[in-house]
Amino acid sequence: MGPLQLCQCRLPKVGGAWAQLPWPGPRQPAMLLLSLLLAAGLVPSDAGASCPVLCTCRNQVVDCSSQRLFSVPPDLPMDTRNLSLAHNRIAAVPPGYLTCYMELHVLDLRNNSLAELPPGLFLHAKRLAHLDLSYNNLSHVPADMFRAAHGLVHIDLSHNPGLHRVHPQAFQGLMQLRDLDLSYGGLAFLSLEALEGLPGLVTLQIGGNPWVCGCTMEPLLKWLRNRIQRCTADSQLAECRGPPEVEGAPLFSLTEESFKACHLTLTLDDYLFIAFVGFVVSIASVATNFLLGITANCCHRWSKASEEEEI
């Protein structure tokens, strides 16, 4: 593992030099004074002293956006709550990158070049609430991608044009998730299992995808109609790209009647009728071939007899 994976999550040594100042009385009052100075912001702490180059750090907010970064900054303040790496050229995030930042609430990675995220990236991000991965090159959302990040409230995966697959267990355990944006990707299908384990889901953005509204989509659409409280933000943008008979139709305009053909079942009489028709067609085919054979034979004999008469 690289140096980013081996970060030491030690408590910062706050004001070490100040702790060594001589004090005429007992040591306890010196530490008390140090605490008061730190609380007042008059003494800098090591937690805020490791602001990465090209970034700005203030009030637990680290802003590294729009700096043309090709990689994530290696060292962040340990108490970072809001981290913005948006509008860069970052292609990968090292495994374990978030391990040391236990206070992280907001992570903004939009508009980068991410094709995937390492497994277990959010394993220690238990306080992460807002995650923005929009405008990247993600191709799939694997199972348990957000494992242990149970505090997530908002996930934005929009504008990933190569996003073709969301694993049925991709959002497993995200009981507090309220907003999920999957719009403007390459999704043709979304499993019902991926969403039915999200009891708190309120807003779902799925417009701008090439949905194939076949029989496999019926369970998802039925669930959406019955469960989602508000799913109208992009309802006009969500439309079917196939099959041809429903191409261009709004996704949410499809009813149970639209999937009626998916539930057609054949009775015994239907099977008997099909078998009878098949038998009749077979007999007719045999009879037709027999007649054609006789006709061809007669023509051949007639032609031969005509030639002999001419001779």
From TrEMBL:
GO molecular function: potassium channel activator activity; transmembrane transporter binding; voltage-gated potassium channel activity
GO cellular component, one term: voltage-gated potassium channel complex
Cellular compartments annotated: Cell membrane
Keyword Ion transport: yes
Domain LRRNT: 50-82
Pfam families documented for this protein: LRR_8
Leader sequence residues: 1-47
InterPro entries hit by this protein: Cys-rich_flank_reg_C, KCNMA1_auxiliary, Leu-rich_rpt, Leu-rich_rpt_typical-subtyp, LRR_dom_sf, LRRNT
Assembly information from the UniProt record: Interacts with KCNMA1.
Protein's recorded name: Leucine-rich repeat-containing protein 55
Gene assigned in the entry: Lrrc55
